[in-house]
Amino acid sequence: MLPDSLCAESERRCRQLLTETTARFRARPAAAAVLVPLCLVRGVPALLYTLRSSRLAGRHKGDVSFPGGKCDPADQDVVHTALRETHEELGLAVPIEHVWGVMRPVYDQAKATVVPVLASVGRLDPQSLRPNPEEVEEVFVLPLAHLLQTQNQGYTHFCRHGHFSYTLPVFLHGPHRVWGLTAVITEFTLQLLAPDTYRPHLASPWLPSG
């Protein structure tokens, strides 16, 4: 069964599990940080995603992502980067006390460090958000129950020079396909929130048991 991911006990457990990675990576330099917004939409626990604007430069335009972006020298740490970028992209102000912790970094193809920050944004009406059209084309949510259904989970195998290289998760049958680093971060999040329900095929040895 899907646990109440927004209850006080779940928050306490997740904060405790993330204590070590938060202490280790919060103040460490990184290229970028993203917020993983855990929200309650019409009473249903969900994750909030964005579709990056096609106006953006670079190969990530039009991709599904979590709100976030490049670290600024003026940012105190990666948590402040994630919160600042979320406010700039969506007009969503998330109090720092709603941050549950920092998850282990992921790395893009250029080996740049991207740090996920998990936070609860509480009850949310996605229609009330004010996305910046220069950065965000669309905002959507995927219920945790949807993400945890095996028929909505898959894996993409990548090859280089004709040989198998690596495998990444993919989440299907929502408004948009969730893949790449966003899917990896989604997988980390599901392992944290629903360890007894989500059984990934990919090993994520960073996640502490508890």
What's the total number of strands?
10
Taken in chain order, the helices and strands follow as HHEEEEHEEEEHEEH
Helix content: 10-25%
Mean pLDDT: 89
Describe the protein:
With 210 residues, this protein is an alpha+beta fold. It has five helices and ten strands, in the order ααββββαββββαββα. The chain has helices at residues 8-17, 19-25, 78-90, 144-148, 180-193, and strands spanning 32-41, 44-52, 64-65, 68-70, 99-102, 106-107, 113-123, 136-143, 153-160, 163-171. The longest helix is centred in the last third of the chain and has 14 residues, at 180-193. It is globular. 35% of the residues are buried. Mean pLDDT is 89; it is low at 203-210.
Structural key phrases:
two-stranded antiparallel ribbon, 23% helix, 210 residues, globular, 10 strands, 31% strand, alpha+beta
Protein topology:
Blueprint: H1 8-17, H2 19-25, E1 32-41, E2 44-52, E3 64-65, E4 68-70, H3 78-90, E5 99-102, E6 106-107, E7 113-123, E8 136-143, H4 144-148, E9 153-160, E10 163-171, H5 180-193
Parallel strand pairs: 1-7
Antiparallel strand pairs: 1-2, 1-4, 2-3, 2-8, 5-7, 6-7, 9-10
Question: Could you provide a short overview of the structure?
Answer:
The chain is α+β, with helices and mostly antiparallel strands and 210 residues long. The protein has helices at 8-17, 19-25, 78-90, 144-148, 180-193; strands at residues 32-41, 44-52, 64-65, 68-70, 99-102, 106-107, 113-123, 136-143, 153-160, 163-171.
